[in-house]
Amino acid sequence: MGIAERKNRQKQALRERILDAARRIVMREGFAALSMRKIADAIEYSPATLYLHFASRDEIAQALCAEGYAQLLETFVPLAGIADPAERLKALGRAYVAFGVAHPETYRLIFMEDPSYTGAALGGAAKGKAVAGDGNGITASDEASGEAAAPEDDPGEAALHIMISALEELKAAGRLSASMDVAVWAEAFWANLHGIVALNLTCPVFPSAPLDTVVEVALGAWLGTSHATQPQSTKTTAGTRKKKSPDVRTESSEESEPEPDNEPAAQPSAKKSAKAANGVSVPAPRRKATSA
């Protein structure tokens, strides 16, 4: 190993130590606690040494965001092999929310701290959107093989391509409108997922239902198919109950009817027995004549 190569390895190793220390601080104390001095203390170097590798705290934050988004992409890549595009998108949605819940500080840093950090994480996503607008998205087979969505590629572009490809397949199969702009659809879908994660991280009263339930309802509203049948089955059940309820009322009324019928029947029999006790053989005509 030459001197130059050894120095490069040492430089790269120190860079990784800096990022590891910064990541631990962010995860433990939040991004607001991150400072060049605190990182330097953690790795036992002078702050001046850090500036040989990173120009500022923001540059470290951007590097952490890029790493975090690459980690998110790693959870997406295996899902690209799901055959049905709608089910693939649902799986991607679940993985996205799960990542935000499992790595809250990383998610905050990427998407909720500074727009420049998000831009650093997404990288060439805008280029991916342009490609998607031309209708030349990568195929599911390319994604499944990892050729187009490998973690080594730009994370933002690769993640977008996985989603765009599934939408293109839905559109080609007639399951999305032919006039639908899949790039706009993907952004709206992403915004919905981000809203769920952001509310879960910041709003103490959200969600009122289990988070998994909220996610499934959102996915069903967007992608329908199997999930869309759930609300229909619920309506059917409610309708069945409504149909059953008149039957129940009819049965209860029929059960209550014999009681009034028995009461009038008991009254004439009581009168007859009383009249028989008085020795009157033809009670009806005499009572009418008396009353008249």
UniProtKB/TrEMBL annotation:
Where in the chain is the DNA-binding region found?
A: 35-54
Q: Which Pfam families match?
A: TetR_N (PF00440)
Ranges of biased composition (kind: Low complexity): 263-277
Q: Where is the composition biased (Polar residues)?
A: 227-239
Please, which domain of life does this record's source organism belong to?
Bacteria
Record keywords, A-Z: DNA-binding
* Residue ranges, compositional bias (Acidic residues): 253-262
Provide the residue span(s) of the region labelled Disordered: 227-292
Task: Note the InterPro entries from the entry.
Answer: Homeodomain-like_sf, HTH-type_TetR-like_transc_reg, HTH_TetR, Tet_transcr_reg_TetR-rel_C_sf
Chain segments annotated as coiled-coil in the UniProt record: none
Which PROSITE patterns would you find in this protein's record?
Answer: HTH_TETR_2 (PS50977)
According to the entry, every stretch annotated as the HTH tetR-type domain falls at 12-72
| UniProt-listed PANTHER family | HTH-TYPE TRANSCRIPTIONAL REGULATOR RUTR (PTHR30055), TETR-FAMILY FAMILY TRANSCRIPTIONAL REGULATOR (PTHR30055:SF212)
Protein name, please?
TetR/AcrR family transcriptional regulator
Q: Which organism is it from?
A: Paraburkholderia dipogonis
